[in-house]
Amino acid sequence: MADPLMILLAVLPLVAITVLMVGLYQPATTTMPIAWVTAAAVGLIGWGMSPDLIAAATIAGVFTATEILWIVFGAILLLFTLKESGAFDAINAGFSSISDDRRVQVVLLVFLMGSFIEGAAGFGTPAAIVGPLLVGLGFPPLAAVVVALTGNIMAITFGAVGTPLIIGLEDVFSKNTAIQEAINTEGMTVTQYVADAAVWAASIHAIVGIVLPFIGVAMMTRFFGEERSIKPALQVLPLTIFAWASFAIPYWLTAYFLGPTFPALLGAMVGLFITAGTLKAGFLLPDEEWDFAPREQWPSHWVGDIEPGESVSGGDQTVAADGGVVQESRDMSLGMAWAPYIMTAALLVVTRVWTPLQSFLNENLVIAWSNILGTGLDGSFRTLYLPGAIFVFVSVITYLLHGMDGQEVKNSWQETTQKILPAVIALWFAVATVQIMINSGQAAGTDSMLVILSDFTANLAGGVYPFFSALVGAFGAFIAGSNTVSDILFGTFQFNAAQNIGVPTQILVGAQAVGGAIGNLVAIHNVVAALAVVGLVGEEGRVIRLELIPLLYYAAMTGVLTILFAYVVAPGAF
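Below the sequence we write its predicted C-alpha cells.
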C-alpha cells in the first residue's frame, strides 16, 4: 500500500471538487480551475512533475475537452434548430395527442422521447427540454422536473452519440500507456475493449431498467397524485414493461453489434415508433384517464414563476418546446419533423461503417500536437470525424428543408452558444485536472495519483468492491454533473482497481459507465438547470431527496449485477 501522505496528497484535487461543489455550492466554472491548481501543486510537490509536464498534460486535456464541446455544440445546435423550425413542437404534439392520460405522457415523453434527446444531445439536455414540455401540457413544474430527471437513466451512458464512452473512456485509455499495453496484451485494441465494456454496461441497464418507466410513473402518482398512491401506476404496468422492451431490445442489440455510438439513439427511436404505434392502434391504453388534482389544490411549492398550460390533443394549438402553447406554427408533417434526426442517424452509421469515408474524415482537418513540449504526450481534434460535424451539417440542411428564415437561424445559434459557453471553462479545467492526475507518475517513474487511489480503495474494500464500483461513477457525476466527466475522472481508477482485486476490468469499467448515469439523477448542475427552465429555482433539496429513491434502487441493483457478472457469469473476462 502507498505511503499515507501520498494517498492524502492524491485525493486533494477530488476533495477540492467535493468541498467546493457539494459543500459550498460553487459552480463548476469556479470549482474546476481551483481543482486544476490543486492537482498541479500536488503534482509539482508530491510527484516532482516539471512545469513542462504539467503544461503538456493540461494541453492534452484541453484537446480532449474541446472534442467533447464540439460534439455537444453540434447536438444542441440541431436541437435548437428543430425547436426554432417548429419540428420539435410537431414531434411533441404527435405524441401528446395520443392520450391526455398523464401516465401515458410520462412513458412517451419522459422515458422514450427523453431517452432519444439524451442519445442525440446528452449533457443535461433532456430534463431541460422535456420538463418545459410537460409543464406546457399542464404538469405541475415540480412534478415535471422530478419525472424528467428520472426517466432517461438507461440512455445517459450512451448519451450524445456515445460521448461518455468514446471520449470519456476510449480517448483517455488510448493516452494511458499502461492501460493501452494491458489491453493490447489481451489481443484487443482500446476501441474493441471499450465496445465490450459498453455491452456490459448495456446489459446492466437493460436488466435494472425494466422498472424504470414504471418508477417514473409511480413517482408522479405517489408524490403528485390526488390519491398519493402507486396504484394508478400499477394500472399501466403492462404499458411500462412494453415500452421498456421496445427500447431495451434494440438498445442492447445496437450496443452488441454496432458499439457505443448508437444504443440510446436507435433504441429510443425504435421504441418511440413501436410504443406510439401500439397506443394509436388502441392497445395498452388505460381504461380511465388519470390526471392531477385541480390546480387550486396544488401546494404552493409545486409551481414557481411559470404557470402550467393546458393539455392539448388536437386543434390548432401545439405545446411549445420551451413550455406554454404555440398558437401558430408551420404546417409540418411528422415525417418532415423527424427527417433531420433520421438523416443524422444515417450519416452517423455510414461514417462509422464505411471504411474509406471513415479514413477520410479521420485524416482531414485534424488539429494535432504530437510530443507536446517534448513530454511524449499527444493531443488532437478531429474536426470532421466527430459527430459534431454531422450535427452542424444536418442543421444547415434543416434550414433549407424546413424553410427557416434568418431570424430563426440566428436564434438557434444564439441559444446554442448561450448553452455551451458555461461548459467551456469547466470542461477544459476538469479534463486537464484528470490528465495531470493520470500523468503524474511519469515524472518519477512511480504510480500516478489515480493509481495510488485505486490501490488504496481496492485494498480497503477487497473482494466486495465491485458492489460499490457504480457508486464511484455516481459520485463522479454528482460532483461534475456529467457522465462523460465522471468516466474521465474515474475510468482509469476503476480499471486499476479491477486489476488489483483480480476481477474483469471490462465489467467494472462498464459499471463505472452505468454509475455515471445514476449520478445524473442528483447532479447539482442538472437539477438546477431543470428547475430553472420551469421557474422553480430554490427547490433543489426537495428534488434531490425524491431522486434518492430511484438512485438507491438503481445503485443497489447495479451493484448486485456487477458482483454476479464479475464472480459468476464471466469471471474469466478481461
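DSSP finds 26 helices and four strands in the chain.
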